[in-house]
Amino acid sequence: MFIFFKENISCECIERNIEFVSKFNYINFDFGKEKRGIYLLQDVSKEIIQEKISGIDKIIEINKPYKFVSREFKNEDTVINVGDFKIGGGNFQKIGGPCSFENENIFRNIAATLKNFGVNIIRGGAFKPRTSPYFFQGIGENALKVMRKVADELNVKIVSEIVSIDHIDLFNEYVDIIQVGTRNMQNYELLKHLGKLKKPILLKRGLSATVEEFLLSAEYIVSNGNMNVILCERGIRTFEKMTRNTLDVSVIPLVKKISHLPIIVDPSHASGSYDLVEPLALAGVSAGCDGIMVEVHDEPEKALSDGNQSIKFKRFKEMSCKIDKIREVLF
Ligand code: PEP
Ligand code: MN
């Protein structure tokens, strides 16, 4: 049961309410003035609540497994602020960059070129969760420091993937959006910790996760206090072997219907192939996603990871123009 407080409720009144519910199983939520209140995880009669809790605006039940991320909890689209750049609620971002950060020169060149194409958020993996322990594992901490330096010089934001709870402070310091990869979508301890931060979290769909499981993972972050979650559809595993994964386009309108969180599309990991990236990106855009994230490299054939699905600058630029045209017509 969700008990929403009135906008003008006093701090003393909130404190008294919290004191009363402290004997129950509850979550105290505060997402700004009009979204403050208490979520009671156990049955307490409405009469008792009306009597003991003051400053109530409304009481609602959400009969779905996912609660805080549902449209019932919040009807308006959530807009994520990444510095001055916004994602969601009609704000679209094209995110690009290498799969892995390799070295400063390569990263600066890719970031500067993409910035010239109007990209505000650059991706780059510092810790790489690779299928084989013998594949390139990423440069680690130093990569984040260099990415931060280059991003500040170019006035862009950066997104990078976290693979361990031990790295939370590091990512909180150096990165603008913390990515949770497909393999960690169900690392619930990690999600709980990320819920304690204020930073935007880019949550990728698990490779075999249902939409409900995907939203419940987002729920772990939001119910712990961090509403700044961007969902990312990156393809799921199906029987098809000719693509790396299968892009589930239907998840975009579906998530838009049942959740207020923004959702972006990663056509690179969905397809595994550079020549399929653009059509999948355009499919995602047409379906109403709030952004795309693609792997871009100046020399994909030399990339230390995911070269085959990385596109070159020219392709990125062409794709970007088509995205703008589609959005102009459709949205
Ligand atoms: C990535 O973005 O580099 C990545 C590893 O993605 P995913 O978790 O979707 O495989
Ligand atoms: Mn990759």
How would you sum up this structure, described in words?
- With 331 residues, the protein is α/β, with parallel strands linked by helices.
- The chain has 2 domains: 2-60; 80-330, TIM Barrel (Alpha-Beta Barrel), CATH 3.20.20.
- It has 11 helices and 14 strands.
- The chain has helices at residues 11-21, 46-52, 104-116, 141-154, 168-174, 188-195, 211-223, 251-258, 267-271, 274-286, 313-330; strands spanning 2-5, 26-30, 36-40, 56-60, 80-82, 85-87, 93-97, 121-123, 157-162, 177-180, 201-204, 229-233, 263-265, 291-295.
- Bound molecules: phosphoenolpyruvate and manganese (II) ion (MN).
- Phosphoenolpyruvate (PEP) is lined by residues 99, 125, 129, 161, 181-183, 204, 234, 266, 269.
Considering the chains and any ligands shown, give keywords for the structure.
2 domains; about 325 residues; alpha/beta; eight-stranded parallel β-sheet; elongated; TIM Barrel; 11 helices; binds phosphoenolpyruvate
